[in-house]
Design a protein that fits this description.
By secondary structure, the protein is an alpha/beta fold. The protein is built from eight helices and eight strands. It is globular.
């Protein structure tokens, strides 16, 4: 990728912008085959946010995936202030990790972004059907979730953070297209988190084209905000 460097770390690929930076982003991708397909998006985010982006490898089953996410977070903490991005099923993983960090009174990330996030693994949301498309296979997703859960009830909050106690989570942005099958997950999570006092920024684009054109810029601006005034603005 032009203008960024990619290197391997003990937890997975690390994408670095050309300038030195203190901000580190833990990017929990949603790719079943590993972080490599996410590296192009991670490179764009690194350049736009001026951040080092860590794309950890995580095992494809619960609870091992959550353990691996925590390992990635610990690696990031050693390098600087941490923000978290979760995409697709990586959104469930990221949010479950945030809840565990809060419960253990560990240092939470400064901010988090959920991108087209799958947050209810029961797959009962209506947008999964209303926004279905030829490129979205609900049956394949159900099979993948069953393999991932390994018999754990799908309403377990460590699998489906929509059912978790959301008090005390860091400021969060949720980015999704109105035509996304995962739309209802973002809407339902925003409602519950707002009632729990979480500072939220929900962005819904009308279609996938506008989402892909603008979402990385919005994500970068949210993650790179450094001042208390920006935090207060997110809560407003």
């Amino acid at each position: 990728m032009k203008d960024v460097t990619v290197e391997e770390s003990p937890v997975g690929p690390v994408v670095r912008p050309p300038e030195d930076t203190e901000l580190v982003v833990l990017y929990l991708h949603g790719n079943q085959d590993g972080p490599e397909p996410a590296l192009e998006a991670a490179g764009r985010l690194a350049l736009l946010a001026g951040a080092t982006v860590v794309c950890p490898r995580y095992r494809g089953a619960f609870p091992a995936a959550l353990i691996d996410a925590h390992s990635g977070y610990s690696y990031c903490q050693a390098a600087g202030p941490v923000a978290v991005v979760g995409e697709g099923i990586g959104g469930a993983l990221a949010t479950a990790m945030l809840v565990q960090l809060r419960d253990s009174e560990a240092t939470s990330p400064r901010r988090a972004v959920l991108v087209s996030a799958l947050l209810d693994l029961t797959l009962d949301s209506k947008s999964l059907q209303f926004n279905a498309s030829p490129t979205f296979d609900l049956g394949a997703l159900r099979s993948r979730i069953a393999d991932y859960a390994r018999g754990t009830p799908l309403t377990d909050s460590h699998l489906s953070p929509l059912y978790a106690n959301l008090h005390g989570l860091p400021p969060m942005a949720l980015l999704v297209a109105g035509t996304d099958p995962m739309l209802d997950d973002s809407l339902a999570f925003t409602t519950r988190a707002a009632r729990s006092g979480v500072a939220l920024d929900l962005r819904v684009w009308p279609d996938a084209a506008s989402f892909h054109a603008q979402s990385t810029h919005v994500m970068a601006e949210f993650l790179a905000a450094r001042h208390a005034g920006a935090e207060a603005g997110a809560a407003a």
